Amino acid sequence: MNLDPALIMAMWAAGLSIAAAVVVLWRVVGTGYLWLAAGTSAGFGIIAALSGGGLPSWIGAISAALAVFVPPVGATVLLGLAGVAHLSSIATNGPIVLSLLGAASLGGITSEMMLGHWFLIDPRLPRWSLHRLAAIGGAAAAL
Question: Which residues contact 79 (CB under 8 A, 6 or more apart)?
Fold first, then answer.
């Protein structure tokens, strides 16, 4: 497995897109979190595409960017599509299990950090969402 910038950024964008889609699907946060997570994922995707990630990285970046313009259900679909697009761009670079674990670790932990900081804005958010993201990111990092 060649750990070049395109691979790292595509893994990060894939994991963050999928984790953000799950958080938006849980309906525990408002649109501000969606905009932050989708914008960050789009940024990571653009860096991956410019670093040699190819067409799937561009599709992922554009899908994540479009997620800020649609209702939460549509954003969940677009973020999921972005995650799958980024996963397809990293599937050819070594064992897929390592790429999936990298995406889950980077994306799960980043999404949890974003959600944790969102608690500073709205401390009434349910704690179970943070615990679930911590379990996902921690389990992937441990493997």
Answer: 17, 18, 20, 21, 24, 37, 38, 41, 63, 64, 67
